[in-house]
Amino acid sequence: MRAQFVLSEIGVGLRRNLTMTFAVVVSVALSLALFGGALLMREQVSTMKDYWYDKVNVSIYLCGKGDSETVVQCAKGAVTGEQKKEIEGDLKKMDVVETVTYESSDEAYKHYQEEFGDSPMAGNITPDQMPESFRVKLHDPTKYKVVATAFAGRNGVQSVQDQRSILDNLFGLMNGMNVAALFVMALMLVIALMLIVNTVRVSAFSRRRETGIMRLVGASGFYIQMPFIMEAAFAGLIGGVLACVMLLAGRYFLIDGGLALKDKLNLIDFIGWDAVLTKLPLVLAIGLLMPAVAALFALRKYLKV
């Protein structure tokens, strides 16, 4: 097969169906950009989980002097020194526990003022209203229930709180956004495939005389089909390149550049450039192969060879 002939046929097909080719390029670019964005969002959520779950603790709040009348679990009175020693000792014996840190009422009040000192409620809080607690770091944060089962309802214990639950709502929202992006991506992908099939049909119909002559002189089916497949693959490749550009631009402007979320939200461990760059070959491969395969199946039905 002469490469010059194939390339000339590709150029003819693209010029004859310029509008539809442009629509294919745009739809492929958008769908692949959403696909890459969804992959990056999933990796970002995973990175944030690893980062935050490694830092959160299980908090065991102890009964205070005024809790006996207001908290059912503290009906037997405030925690005693002996009970605190027993709780701390039992925590340190557990295999799932990495470290145990005691926080007094004064320390809890100090931390509260540091974090919420500007809040209108901060002036109404006194140190004796802040509960004593043990901050427990686990080897595996998912083993929270082991600690909760062992200490919930125990004498001197007001409540056991897993700080992971505070983050679960955020991660649930981000996962929901990820699912929505995947849905839109799937919709755009279907539109792109329909446009590719229609573009190939129109191109094949407009060149039916040439393909008829080629059949008469004994050209193989593959020889006749190749220009149409290459046209679709070329348009898809351009769409894939545009999708890669959008992903790179999105990473730069959202995190490092324009919005500079990396500086404004410095508590979030954002994914790096390596995470983006590793997704680009996959986006390009899909952009190249998806239209080519769609064109191949379209030609089997609509191009009689």
Automatic annotation (TrEMBL):
Quaternary assembly: Forms a membrane-associated complex with FtsE.
Task: List residues of the ABC3 transporter permease C-terminal domain.
Answer: 183-301
Q: What is this protein called?
A: Cell division protein FtsX
Q: Report how it sits in the membrane.
A: Multi-pass membrane protein
State the function annotated in the UniProt record: Part of the ABC transporter FtsEX involved in cellular division.
Location(s) in or outside the cell = Cell membrane
Family annotation (InterPro entries): ABC3_permease_C, FtsX, FtsX_actino, FtsX_ECD
Keyword Cell division carried by entry: yes
| Similarity field | Belongs to the ABC-4 integral membrane protein family. FtsX subfamily.
Pfam (any one)? FtsX_ECD
Q: Which domain of life is it from?
A: Bacteria
Membrane-crossing residue ranges in chain numbering:
21-41, 179-200, 232-255, 275-299
Location, primary (coarse class): membrane
Q: Where is the FtsX extracellular domain?
A: 56-160
- Alphabetic keyword roster: Cell cycle, Cell division, Cell membrane, Membrane, Transmembrane, Transmembrane helix
